[in-house]
Amino acid sequence: MPDPIQTDDIATAAARIASYVRTTPVLDLGHMLSDDWRLVLKLEHLQVTGSFKARGAFNLLLQLDADSGVVAASGGNYGKAIAFAADQLDRPAVVFVPKTSPEEKTGQIARFGADVKVIDGYYDDALEASREHAESSGWPEAHAYDDPRVMAGQGTVGLEISQQVGDASSVLVAVGGGGLIGGVASWYRGSTRVIGVESELCPTLHTARSEGAPVDVEVGGVAASSLGARRVGLHPWTANQWIEASVLVSDDAILDAQSWLWDSCRLWVEPAAATTVAALREGIVEPGRGETVVCLVSGANVALAPTG
Questions:
Q1: How far is CA 11 from the centre of its chain?
Q2: Inter-residue contact 177 to 236 (CB < 8 Å)
Q3: Which residues lie below 8 Å from residue 272, measured CB to CB, with a gap of 6+?
Q4: Residue 304 predicted with pLDDT over 80
Q5: With respect to CATH, is domain 7-52+147-297 assigned 3.40.50.1100?
Q6: Tens-digit pLDDT profile for residues 68-122
Q7: What is the layout of strands, in order, in the sheet containing 115-119?
Q8: Over the range 211-220, which residues count as b (16 or more CB within 10 Å of their CB) and which as e?
Q9: Could you check whether 7-52+147-297 and 54-137 share the same CATH topology?
């Protein structure tokens, strides 16, 4: 088992990437969902490239040999982040994406200048192809979540939340391969409750916690393009000790929350980003009286917003 990343790793990552990424705002919704507790949204969908993934991508690439290209596999958001970071740093990138990835994501990866390779199947199939290419080309593999440098970069979201919402009782985080929740939990280290939220059809962390170790799961549903990793990474798993709970939400609940964020807040986000709000709206996570709950809104790489 790898060693957990440290808070110093996250603080160092924040300084390293500061000139390349945004400090995203928070939106205080007060008692919009309940008179008993306060809801705050961390608007990470406003990050460069439209998701939190840019943080980890820059933190990784800035630590690689400046003369090297990079190879990655992605369901879309990380590929877009790697392509953007590589373009900003004037490095070539090859990104392998599963055929299930939405066209709006794969098209954006290509527009940033990366060489996009579309692979039949899901994320794991793209990952296998990317590893073969990395071995044959000699370029380093930039794993989307199972890398301590990526995880430290994603953990800078937690650092920002702690500065912006100092009284947070709980932070709800969507989970795919675990890089984001691993980074956030590694920052808080039990000082604030960190709760993972997954689609019922992409239960990687939930299953790992039930089994006591990461295992392969079947994935599908409306959030699979972002949360479709079949197994939690070993590096994110080191932060499981600081994750309070893992809960599951249905596809219907995710889509309802996505619509609510648009209708009530005029925030149009991808389904994966709505999972945290879905857990609150469905009563799956029940905050206590007087608590402040932060929902991390992770990404907005989705088709155009409704016109109504």
A1: 18
A2: yes
A3: 174, 176, 199, 223, 225, 226, 227, 254, 298, 299
A4: no
A5: yes
A6: 899 999 868 899 999 999 999 999 999 999 887 878 778 889 999 999 999 998 7
A7: 70-73, 93-98, 115-119
A8: eeebeebebe
A9: yes
Tell me the average pLDDT across 53-58.
98
171: exposed, middle or buried (Cβ count in 10 Å: 0-12, 13-18, 19+):
buried
Exposed/middle/buried for 65, CB within 10 Å: 0-12, 13-18, 19+? exposed
- CB–CB of 224/241 below 8 Å? no
With a CB cutoff of 8 Å and minimum separation 6, the contacts of 68 are: 91, 139, 140
Measured at the CA of 30, the angle between CA 243 and CA 174, to 5 degrees, comes to 30
Rounded distance between C-alpha atoms, residue 182 and residue 131, angstroms: 23
Q: What is the pTM of this model?
A: 0.95
Instruction: Find the angle CA(198)-CA(201)-CA(207) to the nearest 5 degrees.
Output: 65
What is the model's pLDDT at position 301? 81
Residue 63, both tokens = 């630590």
Q: Do the beta carbons of residue 39 and residue 29 sit within 8 Å?
A: yes
3-state DSSP assignment of residue 94: strand
User: 249 forms bridges with which residues in the sheet?
Assistant: 199
Gap between the Cα atoms of 275 and 273, Å rounded: 6
Distance of CA 18 to the CA centre of its chain: 18
Up-side HSE of residue 122: CA atoms within 13 Å toward CB?
Answer: 19
Domain boundaries, the chain: 7-52+147-297, 54-137
Architecture of domain 54-137: 3-Layer(aba) Sandwich (3.40)
Non-local CB neighbours of 289 within 8 Å, separated by 6+ positions: 36, 37
